[in-house]
Request: fold
Amino acid sequence: MNETLLFIVGLIQDFITAFFFELSGLFFSHFIQFMLAGLILVMVNFERKRTSRPEFTYLTLAFMLLMFQEYLMCTVLGLKVITKIIPAEEYSVVLYRVLELFALIILTTAFLYPVAKRKAALQKILLYNLLSAVGISLAVFLSFHLQDRQGSFAVHWGSRLFGVLDLILLITIIVHTLMVGRRSTLLIVAAASFWAFRESCILYNSIVLGGEDQTLLVLSETVPIAVYTLLVLAIYRQITKEYMSLQLATLKSKMRLEAIFDGITDGIMTLDKDLKILNVNQSERRLLDMPTDEMIGKTCFELYGRGSQPCPDCPAKATFLSGEKSSASFHCPRKLGEKPSFFEEEAFPLFNRSGEVDQIIIYIKNTTERHRTQDRIRALDRLAAIGEMSTRVAHE
Reply:
């Protein structure tokens, strides 16, 4: 029974090994990784442009390196399989590991940046780490070039050094993400854990097995597909969450502005370039005793019954032409048969992105009561003057 089981396991292992190494499975694996890295790069770059946050700049640079890394391996494997030309594959593997180290340094900085108290110090650490990685990479390339070429890079000390450095950076990302404690970061923890597992397989195969275990090689080349998939889900979830938060904040802001807009006791209208009404507040609707549907789309002079042409001293026209605030006074009956009501209106410009006046806000204040009060005061002054004159005449 055990021999049969071992035989079946051996067949499955031979099939997997043959598929990935003889039927170009590695090429398709790296091609999938290349496409997923490109998708992540597009998503991260979109967030970078939208939010302008520095951590998304670091993420963009890191995934550019990872995308170039996968492009490099796709090119090498494609030339090897399709044209039967074997390029300097071992040197390509060295460069692959170098790019991975650089990307992980930048990724670690991106994850630490939002919670770092001293941003400048973290950026200096990033620079020092990159310079150190350049020195390590040059040393690995030089030693690999001068060594006895009978062995592969899988057993070279540079491979182990890169593996240890990558593992340290991944553990830093995992610890930091767990300390943040947000549920949305569990996908990041899972992706970094898979990546750390891959690096552990590479180190175990290099140090213990001498780079001979084909199963571990296949595993180390296919695990990144799961890593990139988890990263796509994590970034998509983060973008969706931020988008929903932005929509909710926009809705709350709109409701708050509408409450302020309707809460102002004086009338307010917004007009387009044709002086047609786009929106009115509650006070203006109450002032004219008209529903909103009947007011929207009409011109301001039609609404107040001032003819079919704009007023000669129209402040809205003056503001559209000058781009500056203007004001005017007018009087008209609000309804047929009523006495004229007096109004003061001020026009304020609204500019578009090109700096042109796109709309106008009209602030209308009903000054009828003030005019009537002033008329009563003037009438009382006249009566007082007449009384005084009558007293003087009687005295004489």
